[in-house]
Design goal:
Blueprint lengths: L3 H11 L5 H13 L1 H19 L8 H13 L7 H5 L2 H43 L6 E2 L3 H7 L19 E10 L2 E10 L2 E9 L5 E8 L2 E8 L2 E7 L3 H12 L1
Antiparallel strand pairs: 1-2, 2-3, 3-4, 4-7, 5-6, 6-7
Helix pairs in contact: 1-3, 2-3
């Protein structure tokens, strides 16, 4: 390929770790560069060969029978002196502490995931404003924007005309967030651009929650199997108004 950095992108491309823009750029390059196309074909063949090979040890039925017989013949260990002295309520306390610790760990992991997603959304929002690529389909007609996504995503995003409420529809575009395709519906309130990101989620419905990151306001909510996040430098009150209109 043209550079060592581009060569490193081949592995990331095979692992689906590139964003949508990078993936499309690399696919264009592969269509023109025979060396890189051959190289990624070799990587893919090697990966498929490893996945197809059965590398696990398969014990014989005789070995499994002997092992099971040996385990059944072993005497059950007797409680130690320490175990006999520990009252039953102590074990309950230990179990409660373990449950509390696991709950705290899950909460921390969930919060980290939410912060990472918010950071992705902010990055995509800023990039759309700076790269002169705010929309893939530029129109204020929601009957044009909604069908445009057909065949490009495995879901049909909600596209509403809210111009009568002061939120002008500008268009839409494809995005890649949290490891899958997403729709970005673009609105404008006076001079403020609003990106509404949406994709399917298995999570239950959640009321809108407002956060702020890097000078932008974010309103997130879940409804009818879909995740929504509106982001803009618009004030929080008006952005919340948009979320309320979209939920009607």
């Amino acid at each position: 390929m043209a550079s060592h950095a581009q060569r490193n992108l081949l592995h990331a491309y095979l692992d689906d770790e590139l964003d949508l823009v990078r993936s499309m750029e690399l696919e264009d390059h592969l269509a023109e560069c025979g060396d890189c196309a051959n190289e990624i074909a070799s990587y893919r063949a090697l990966r498929e060969g490893i996945h197809a090979a059965d590398l696990r040890y398969q014990p014989s039925s005789e070995f499994r029978s002997r092992l099971l017989s040996t385990l059944q013949q072993q005497e059950r260990p007797q409680p130690t002196l320490i175990q006999r002295r520990i009252p039953r309520w102590s074990w309950a306390a230990v179990a409660a502490l373990l449950l509390l610790a696991s709950g705290a760990l899950l909460l921390d992991l969930n919060q980290r995931s939410e912060r990472r997603l918010a950071s992705e959304i902010v990055t995509d929002h800023v990039r759309s404003l700076m790269a002169s690529h705010l929309t893939d389909v530029a129109t204020s007609d929601h009957h044009t924007v909604k069908p445009w996504f057909t065949g490009k995503l495995d879901f049909s995003p909600q596209v509403r005309d809210l111009s009568a409420d002061g939120f002008e529809l500008i268009g839409g575009r494809l995005e890649y967030l949290e490891g899958h395709g997403a729709a970005a519906i673009v609105y404008q309130r006076r001079k403020h651009i609003i990106n509404l990101f949406t994709w399917p989620t298995p999570a239950s419905d959640e009321e809108p929650q407002a956060t702020a990151q890097q000078g932008f306001n974010l309103i997130e909510w879940k409804h009818a199997g879909m995740y929504y996040c509106a982001i803009s430098d618009l004030n929080r009150q008006e952005l919340t108004e948009l979320a309320s209109l979209l939920q009607k």
